[in-house]
Amino acid sequence: MRSLFFVCILCALFVVGCKGTRPQPEEETRQSVRVPDSTIQPAVALPGKTSSYEERQGAFLYGKYCAVCHGQEGKGDGFNAFNLDPRPRDFSDSASMKRLSDGQIIQTISGGGRSVNKSPLMPSYGWTLSRQQILYLADFVRSRSTDF
Asked: Are 90 and 74 in contact, with CB atoms under 8 Å apart?
């Protein structure tokens, strides 16, 4: 009976010891997703224009979170746009973008469409992105109306 107890204890110690030596699936995913800042490219390469760090960050975040609905060029024609009613906003329409304040753009990104009485299909990113990332993204979205 005593030997069975010691075998159980040894097995438990072995399992606990092995758990710390093998990376967990979440850690593997996080490590494989990391991209050095120097390799981040804008969602749409603009000819002859060099990008600042902030612009590159905004472009990267836009490509990751927004382009699937709003499109690579911000025209509201992303891959998923045809499944949505109402359709995503066209950021290249400078007349409608001028009516939006920076605060409204930031609120829409942070709280989603529902937070500004627009489409509830637009998700909120306030828990996903940091405040600084939201600012990078808002600046990038704003720049879509002047670049095209």
From this structure: yes
Our measurement of the distance from residue 15's CA atom to the centroid of its chain's CA atoms, rounded to an integer in Å, reads 37
In the chain, domain spans: 51-147
Strand segments, DSSP code E, in the chain are none
What's the pLDDT tens digit per position in 8-33? Answer: 666 665 555 555 555 545 444 444 44
Residue type (1 letter), 94: S
Taking the CA atoms of residue 104, residue 49, residue 95 and residue 82 in that order, the dihedral angle to the nearest 10 degrees is -80
Please state whether the peptide bond connecting residue 88 to the residue before it is cis, i.e. omega within 30 degrees of 0.
no
Query: In the numeric block, which tokens belong to residue 24?
Result: 């967990």
Point out the residues of the chain with pLDDT beneath 50.
Answer: 24, 26-42, 147-148
What is the structure's pLDDT at 36?
Answer: 47
The CATH class that applies to domain 51-147 reads mainly alpha
